[in-house]
Design goal:
By secondary structure, the chain is α/β, with parallel strands linked by helices. It folds into 2 domains: about 350 residues, ANL, N-terminal domain (Rossmann fold), CATH 3.40.50.12780; about 100 residues, 2-Layer Sandwich (GMP Synthetase, Chain A, domain 3), CATH 3.30.300. It is built from 12 helices and 19 strands. An 11-stranded mixed sheet has the order 4-3-5-6-7-8-9-13-12-11-10. Strands 18-17-16-19 form a 4-stranded mixed sheet, with helices on one face. It starts with a helix and ends in an 8-residue tail after the last strand. About 45% of the residues are buried. Bound molecules: zinc ion. Zinc ion binds next to loops.
Length: about 450
């Protein structure tokens, strides 16, 4: 292990984990993507029963790809297909492109039917995954001197092994997982951990728990950086700043997708969007209605294509996440595209023709001084139209209830384009606190559908 770490870390003294790849000029990066994509499509077609049948049905062959734009001739995959193909040919389904004996790891994401969807890795896929994690950790400022507490769930979930990327980087790692809050705070305090990774709502919950126990997270702990993923909060400025103040630490947002890897995009020190590992994953941003590409800055559905993952290639995977992209070179010097995640299509609700994401509501609520930042959205039908109401909590404020209500109404109308039917101001701690993933939307409409 010592020899490996010396080789892996001591050569890196600068700001990049892999300077050549991370700062590759766009034309060279796209040439690399095209070369890898050609090989990858050919590999998928030759080795996966599913892709052979699906390309044949669409009338396309791997050799039809001459430019990156030609990828648009190839069919999409999505979660439902992934699940069906797995059930049709257990254990790993016919999207698999290697013999099962070459698979060394599977992660699982839970599904509504109870059968977990499996994501297989070969040994080489796993190494690439961890090298990507190390790159993202490095960009977020983690260094071999850091003490890192990994506070993500290890049980089947792909976020568990992300810790190996921190080890590869050379940090001293505590594999905590989802231990109870008291225990986690004890570990952080006793071992003076400098970096941790959790969800934004849990970072907030943990900070509040610490305070309740007489621990000041800003001064009694050594935490300098908090990595978050799994919810949009890490990219919502007011949420980020509130957590940073609570902890006296910097927050770095990561994005992961369990159907491909754990984290595949993360913030650099500039923290203006998340750099995607574009040498390994190709991005398309498409209008979800027309499936045509949208320009940088325009929200669209993120569609991802693996470029090297061989156990199960993902060709044009519709993630269901709405993002904006920025292909300009970041001031950090990295050329890989930066994404900003706006929300899940599934979480979006439509109020009198306007698309509303819970993250937009969070943006509004967290920006208003005098509220705790917690909220609950209730969506309901009235006269055959969808409406929404908001419940928020009063924080430390001398403002009257009427003034707070008026401010929420006004800011919601400005940001979302549609006013809430009603705003209720509750006492502090009236709303349930989530531990890991916050559930903030109650849908009372007849169909129960969120879209
Ligand atoms: Zn950057």
């Amino acid at each position: 292990m010592g020899a490996l770490n010396l080789e892996q870390t001591n050569v890196r003294t600068g700001k990049y984990w892999d300077e050549e790849i991370e700062t590759l000029p766009r034309f060279a990066l796209e040439a690399l993507q095209l070369q890898r994509l050609k090989t990858h499509l050919d590999f998928a077609y030759r080795n996966s029963g599913y892709y052979r049948a699906s390309f044949d049905a669409a009338g396309v062959r791997p050799e039809d790809l001459r430019t990156l734009d030609d990828l648009r001739r190839f069919p999409f995959v999505h979660k439902q297909i992934e699940r069906e193909r797995q059930l049709a040919q257990p254990l790993l389904g016919d999207m698999l492109a290697v013999p099962e004996r070459d698979v060394v790891f599977v992660s699982a994401s839970s599904g509504s039917t109870g059968v977990p969807t499996l994501s297989p890795f070969t040994s080489s896929d796993f190494d690439t995954f961890q090298n990507n994690e190390a790159r993202l950790f490095w960009a977020a400022g983690m260094r071999p001197e850091d003490r890192y507490v990994h506070a993500l769930n290890f049980t089947l979930f792909v976020g568990g092994p992300d810790v190996i990327g921190a080890q590869k980087l050379g940090a001293l790692c505590f594999w905590a997982g989802t231990v109870p809050s008291d225990r986690l705070l004890f570990i952080m305090k006793e071992f003076q951990a400098t970096v941790t990774w959790t969800t934004p709502s849990y970072a907030w919950h943990l900070g509040e728990t610490a305070r309740a126990q007489g621990i000041n997270p800003a001064s009694d702990l050594a935490l300098r950086r908090i990595i978050v993923a799994g919810e949009p909060g890490g990219s919502i400025p007011a949420t980020r700043e509130a957590i940073e103040r609570l902890w006296n630490a910097q927050l770095y947002d990561f994005y992961g997708i369990s159907d491909i890897y754990g984290a595949c995009a993360g913030m650099c020190e500039v923290r203006d969007g998340l750099h995607l590992v574009e040498d390994d994953i190709l991005l398309e941003v498409l209008d979800p209605a027309t499936l045509e590409p949208v320009p940088d800055g325009t929200p669209g559905e993120m569609v991802l294509t693996t470029l090297t993952k061989s156990a199960r290639p993902m060709i044009r995977f519709r993630t269901g996440d709405i993002i904006t992209a920025d292909h300009s070179t970041c001031t950090c010097g990295r050329t890989h595209v930066r994404i900003k995640v706006i929300g899940r299509i599934d979480d979006m609700f439509i109020i009198t023709g306007v698309n509303v994401f819970p993250s937009d509501v969070e943006f509004v609520i967290r920006s208003i001084p005098g509220l705790t930042g917690e909220f609950r959205i209730t969506v309901f039908d009235e006269d055959h139209l969808s409406r929404y109401s908001l419940e928020v909590e009063r924080g430390e404020s001398h403002l009257s209830e009427a003034t707070l209500i008026e401010r929420v109404m006004h800011d919601a109308k400005t940001r979302l384009g549609v006013r809430p039917k009603e705003v209720k101001i509750l006492e502090p701690n009236a709303l349930p606190r989530s531990t890991h993933k916050a559930k903030r939307v109650v849908d009372l409409r007849g169909s129960g559908s969120l879209t």
